């Protein structure tokens, strides 16, 4: 069974996922990188997911994301880090739940806002509008909670500690 990490941009999906994959000797898949590779193959042009979103728009971006998630249907025993918006589409959520166990890496609203200030803001957020950040948190928090099989609280925990906590949880479950 796959472990699928969901959560906000900057919550640690890629870092925790890569560390967990190393600890468990599983394949690690970052769907953002797969989207970039998929785009490069189709359009013979290299762009980051941020650039794809900005240049092609949200509709195109979400279709590309859905295509990449669909391509994972036969993946087994991997650790998969999704993009922050993967849960916006209920078909994606159903596909991911069928693919494995969804783990929501939870961050507080304050941590989310602080990390956004340290990283590039998602293209669709207005950095001058703190209400847009708050609204995004409220909307997605509910979607992550509904989609997840398990919620992991990440506050004040290192990447290594989170990976070990998740590995311990996996060891105590059937099917891992």
**Physical arrangement of strands within the biggest beta sheet:** 2-3-1-4-5
Helices and strands, in order, run as EHEHHHEHEHHEH
CATH architecture grouping of the domain at 2-29 and 77-171: 3-Layer(aba) Sandwich
How much of the sequence is in beta strands? Answer: 5-15%
- Characterize the quaternary organization of these chains: single chain
Q: Kindly, what is the distance between the CA atoms of the first and last residues, rounded to a whole number of angstroms?
A: 6 Å
Provide the CATH superfamily of the domain at 2-29 and 77-171.
P-loop containing nucleotide triphosphate hydrolases
Low-confidence segments, given as residue ranges, are none
What does this structure look like?
The protein has 176 residues and is α/β, with parallel strands linked by helices. It has a domain at 2-29 and 77-171: Rossmann fold, CATH 3.40.50.300. It is built from 8 helices and 5 strands; from the N terminus they run E-H-E-H-H-H-E-H-E-H-H-E-H. It has helices at residues 13-24, 31-43, 49-56, 58-71, 90-99, 109-118, 130-147, 159-171, and strands at 2-6, 27-30, 78-81, 100-106, 150-153. A 5-stranded parallel sheet has the order 2-3-1-4-5, sandwiched between helices. The chain is globular and about 45 Å long. The termini are close together.
